[in-house]
Fold this sequence. Notes:
Chain B has 455 residues and is an alpha/beta fold.
Amino acid sequence: MLKGKKVAILGDRDGIPGPAIEECIKSAGADVVFSTTECFV
Amino acid sequence: MFVNSLPFSTFRGDDIMNYPVVKGAAYALIQANDMLVHHGTTQTSERRKNIDSEHLQNLPKHLRSFEAAVAYPPNQVYIGNIPPDELKNYENSVQGASRDGKYGEIMPEDEFIALLKIVDVFDLVILEEQFQFEVKGKIADHPVLQKLKNLDKLEKQPSSFEQVQKLVDDHLAQPLYFKAKLVGCVKKAHDFDQALSDHVMLENLVSKASAAFALQLLLMKTDLQAEDVEYIIECSEEACGDMNQRGGGNFAKAIGKMCGCVNATGSDTRSFCAGPAHALIEAAALAQSGIYRNIVVLAGGSATKLGMNSKDHVKKGLPALEDMLGAFAIHIDENDGLNLVIRTDGVGRHKIGSGSSPQAVMTAIVANPLDKMGYKITEIDRYSAELQNPEITEPAGAGDVPLSNYKMIAALGVKRGDFEKGELAKVVAGFGMPGFAPTQGTSLQGFHLLVMQGK
Amino acid sequence: MDLENQTRIKDLTEKYGNENFIVVIGGAEAEASGLTAETVSTGDPTFAGPLSGVSLGLKAYHVFELKEQVDPDVYEEQISMMEMVLEVDEIIKEVKTYRK
Lengths: 41, 455, 100
């Protein structure tokens, strides 16, 4: 499902941060077009 | 970084007397309801979009009284009157709570506004004359504040209400309110330099004043003498400078000057909320190497973070719990054979190449230094992580940050084979502690438990 | 969801459409994760940001839902530890509801 898709990543400092998700998405053959990590504290 | 209160005989490694110690700490809280409404960025952003928004209309009904803020159990923990482990015994307010703490104090907003004027060396803070006269008396009677330098600032430039209102209306100054009344303002420091705007001046003065309060508390509540401080490291999240050097600094020396630290030099260290951790390592290194004696790591509070998650709090019928500015000051020195030892042989390092997955981060800053010192994760009695108050963060969707951190440390232990997954909850209950600190960025909470246990 | 990020997602949807462009989130909790998923599909329910009343129709997934599609070694290294920390089932259940 992920292969070839364009992906925007909204990571969470207290959940999974952006760069960690990015590694996963790239390994599945998708194209990361935006990645960020949000913080609420 | 690990701090030791083990007896000599159980120590592994080099002579313990080489390591520096934590000699004392002070924690200040300032209730700032009006700053929350007028300067918290959640509110200023909302005001830009829709000045009549539902949130802005409802928020004033969710502001706590000073007495309620003082009696709020996490605030009593922060100033050292209740150990963190006992927080679970409190459902509601603490009966007979005092604003005075074993390791700090809770200050009301009017006294803090006066403090802004005291620490202001460029005549930017203008107070309405009646207000100025009244707070002058309160400051003169305050056992900690009466010892600050520059108290005579409160004699200077009292202004009329109309003059203050005009400065605000002409966009030359940020308003200062107390109990919803306009009582003063903070002027911009330059006609067009954005680094010297009225917003920036207010934020920086808030940081400076709250840090000076924490430092003064440290000097009054411990044996540290102002003239014995040799180095100050300031680690807030603010920047002071001008358009040619926007973040040049040096908050540290400016704060030290307010408290009479005539023999100290200093500098500012920045790394967002990790600033204090870096600053403590730097202080420990300076102390252990003998370069300086009596180093103070300190930071003031953030006006902009007040009420940061208040939309969620108001929506869920809670008080606006982020009404407190938080500041701290910690005294590090060479080993005295008495106080908590800083194990500088156990300092983690989240390297540029470490990766940012939670596992990589925890491995870098917890597992690696423990491996170096020869300890298993379960051989550490207590871990002190970021200790934000979950009553603040849970309604905002950020979860219980301390608990998550402890679970991550424990999960790392499971991955390393130190114990079974089924024991995770038990392990966490053993080495964790509940959160209680305001979401003020750098209020370094971890030392509370250690300082209390050490004493 | 951060307001600037709402703008970014809106702009990216204009560029890529909503068929081949998805959002992957790493939220710590079910409620916050659900809020993000809702915002990028039917609009910002808090009416705080640029996606207020804007229905982008994007599909949002929490990274926990994509376990089977990610290289197992990469998932093990980057995500697996957090399965012991966060409420995985609760989060997945919440986020799924916004992908009708």
